[in-house]
UniProtKB/TrEMBL annotation:
<keyword id="KW-0220">Diaminopimelate biosynthesis</keyword>
<comment type="similarity">
    <text>Belongs to the aspartate-semialdehyde dehydrogenase family.</text>
</comment>
<dbReference type="GO" id="GO:0009089">
    <property type="term" value="P:lysine biosynthetic process via diaminopimelate"/>
</dbReference>
<feature type="domain" description="Semialdehyde dehydrogenase NAD-binding">
    <location>
        <begin position="2"/>
        <end position="117"/>
    </location>
</feature>
<dbReference type="GO" id="GO:0004073">
    <property type="term" value="F:aspartate-semialdehyde dehydrogenase activity"/>
</dbReference>
<feature type="active site" description="Proton acceptor">
    <location>
        <position position="234"/>
    </location>
</feature>
<dbReference type="InterPro" id="IPR000534">
    <property type="entry name" value="Semialdehyde_DH_NAD-bd"/>
</dbReference>
<comment type="pathway">
    <text>Amino-acid biosynthesis; L-lysine biosynthesis via DAP pathway; (S)-tetrahydrodipicolinate from L-aspartate: step 2/4.</text>
</comment>
<comment type="subunit">
    <text>Homodimer.</text>
</comment>
<keyword id="KW-0791">Threonine biosynthesis</keyword>
<keyword id="KW-0457">Lysine biosynthesis</keyword>
<dbReference type="GO" id="GO:0019877">
    <property type="term" value="P:diaminopimelate biosynthetic process"/>
</dbReference>
<keyword id="KW-0521">NADP</keyword>
<feature type="binding site">
    <location>
        <position position="227"/>
    </location>
    <ligand>
        <name>substrate</name>
    </ligand>
</feature>
<feature type="binding site">
    <location>
        <position position="97"/>
    </location>
    <ligand>
        <name>phosphate</name>
    </ligand>
</feature>
<keyword id="KW-0028">Amino-acid biosynthesis</keyword>
<dbReference type="GO" id="GO:0009097">
    <property type="term" value="P:isoleucine biosynthetic process"/>
</dbReference>
Amino acid sequence: MKVAVVGATGLVGGEILKVLAERDFPVTELLLVASERSVGKQMEFKGKQVKVIGMQDAIAAAPQIAIFSAGGSTSTEWAPKFAEVGTVVVDNSSAWRMDPTKKLVVPEINAKELTKEDKIIANPNCSTIQMVVALNKLHEELQMKRIVVSTYQSVTGTGVKAVDQLMNEREGKEGEKAYPYQIDLNVLPHIDVFQDNGYTKEEMKMILETKKIMGDDSIRVTATAVRIPVMGGHSESVNVEFEKDFTLDEVYRILGETEGVVVVDDVKNLKYPMPQDAHGKDEVFVGRVRLDETQPRTVNMWIVADNLRKGAATNAVQIAEYLVKHELV
Ligand code: 2RA
């Protein structure tokens, strides 16, 4: 399989290469694609040095699959050009997620909707992925009515510049700023740009993408997305109201049967999900499960995942694996 990784030099690009190698994805030829300033750079893949090339050369090579993590404008401009040469694009940006002609895929939930006609496939936002992975079987059995989510998102979601700002602030060094304010010892209730309704784009992504992935517009979602000075992954406090009655034991049973979820919930022994434990892993970790004692059919939980892995790279590679397994590419 000739595979292109577009945005190979970024944080997610690097994770995609790691995941492709770890999962032994059937790569026969790897194309590393980045902006002109990175062309010619060497990167390692499975012990071999691979040279970074530009977009036109990558399109000319007509890879079967191109996994993009290069921002929305790059995807908007270049994904269709890859599709024109027969490449199936799995795109990590927000460019295509809400396009009604494009599928928004979390393999554990809706990969079965994919067909040979899908040439540009959208990878959901990291904070959406971990939430829907945790909730999708509960929705299947108990029908979600309303979700209230507050996120605690790692600086790695912003990228290298943000990680550098945090490290520089910790070490008392000057440097480029990814955020309008100090991030160390601080939290920013602001991820992506503010919309006219007072919500940020990140919050609107969670609200709209959740409905699309679950295929259920009736689910009411409200979100507050917060940036915190953490590296290992995103955490989310989620309050979910269901249509059907349930017991806490049933919630634990369903979570235990949910693909991609690991329940870490033993507060007597101080066992609960944390980014430092999720870092580098592909599972979605769920804990602090408890009834909301203020209203019926409602439960609280804490959801943690590595946003660069299941939140981006691994989900995208799992989509590619599905395409190969079902001969859709
Ligand atoms: C973030 N989810 O965390 C966004 C994009 N990766 O910044």
